[in-house]
Amino acid sequence: MITLLLLLAQSTVADGAIQPQVAADEQGQIYVTYVKGGNVIVKFSTDDAKTWSREWTAIDAKGKAKGGAQRGPRIGAHGKNGVVVTAPVCFDEKEFEKQYPTNELWIVRSTDMGQTWSKPAQVNEAARKAPESLHWLAVAPNGDAHVAWLDIRDGKDNCLWYARVEAGKVGRNVKLTGPVCECCAPGMAVDDRGNPVVAVREGKKADRSILLSVSRDGGKSFAAAGAVNAGKTGLGS
Predict the structure, then answer these.
(1) If pLDDT is split at 50, 70 and 90, which confidence band does 237 have?
(2) pLDDT score, position 146
(3) Contact 62, 42 (CB under 8 A)
(4) pLDDT band at 2 (very low <50, low <70, confident <90, very high)
(5) What pLDDT does residue 163 have?
(6) Which residues lie across from 149 on neighbouring strands?
C-alpha cells in the first residue's frame, strides 16, 4: 500500500495513490492530483494541508489509467477555485488489445475547486503519436493552460511539441525542438504575464544538453531552443 504524504505539512493525503503532483492558488488553497484505482483523482485543502476534501474524479478512465516513471497527471491552479489537470489516458478499447496501449494526452478544467470537471479534451492533434506519455503543464494567471509533451508524429524520434489551451479550447500544436530524450519529461513554467518557458533534454547526441525555449508573446511563438549548460553534461545517447 502506497501512502501519499504532503511533506511540508506531514499530512496524509491518500492511500494507494501513485504519481502525485501538487499546486497552490493565489488564495493559498492546495490541490493534489494522482492516479488511484485506475482514475485521475484530485483533492484540495483550504487550511494549509491540515485537512483534505473527499476525492474527486477529474478524469474517469474506467479504472484503466496507469502511471510510472514521470508518466502521470499534472495540475495547475489559478484565480479563485480554478484548477486544470492534464493526464495521459487511453479511451480507445482497441488499444487495450495491445500489450502496451498508447495513451493520448487529455486536459480537463474545474471552476469549483475540483468538485466538477469539464469533458476531457485531447491535447495532441495526432492520435497515437505520444506513446511515451511524458509531458508538463503550466497555468497562467489568466487561466490559460500551457502544455508541452513528447511526440513522434514526424517519424521515429521523439520531439517536443506545445499547445496553449484557452477557455478550454486546445490551440494549434507547435513543434518546439527535436529530437529530444525519449525518457525525460520536459519542464515548464509561466511568468505573471503568461509567457511560458520550456526545458527539455536533447536527444540523439553524444552529449545531451539541456535545451531552453522561451516565449515572449504568451505562447504564440518561441525563440529557437538553446543549450543552458555551458559545459558537457556527461550524458550521451
Answers:
(1) low
(2) 98
(3) no
(4) very low
(5) 97
(6) 135, 161
> For the purposes of burial, counting CB atoms within 10 Å of the CB of 187, is it exposed (0-12), middle (13-18) or buried (19 or more)?
middle
Calculate mean pLDDT across residues 134-145: 95
The Cα 134–Cα 160 span in angstroms is 10
DSSP string, 105-154: EEEEEESSTTSS-PPPEE--SSTT--TT--EEEEE-TTS-EEEEEEE-TT
Q: Where are the domains of the chain?
A: 1-122, 134-237
Cell numbers representing residue 141 in the block = 494567471
pTM: 0.91
Mean pLDDT of 95-124: 93
- The answer to whether the beta carbons of residues 1 and 16 sit under 8 Å apart is yes
What single-letter DSSP state applies at residue 155? Answer: S
Q: How far apart are CA 49 and CA 62, in angstroms?
A: 29
Q: What is the DSSP string of 68-86?
A: BTTBS-EEEEETTTEEEEE
Tell me which residue has cell 503532483. Answer: 21
Q: Is the pLDDT of residue 112 over 80?
A: yes
- Supply φ then ψ for residue 70, to 5 degrees: 75, 5
Task: Using the CB atoms, write b or e for 160-172: b if 16+ within 10 Å.
Answer: bbbbbbbeeebbe
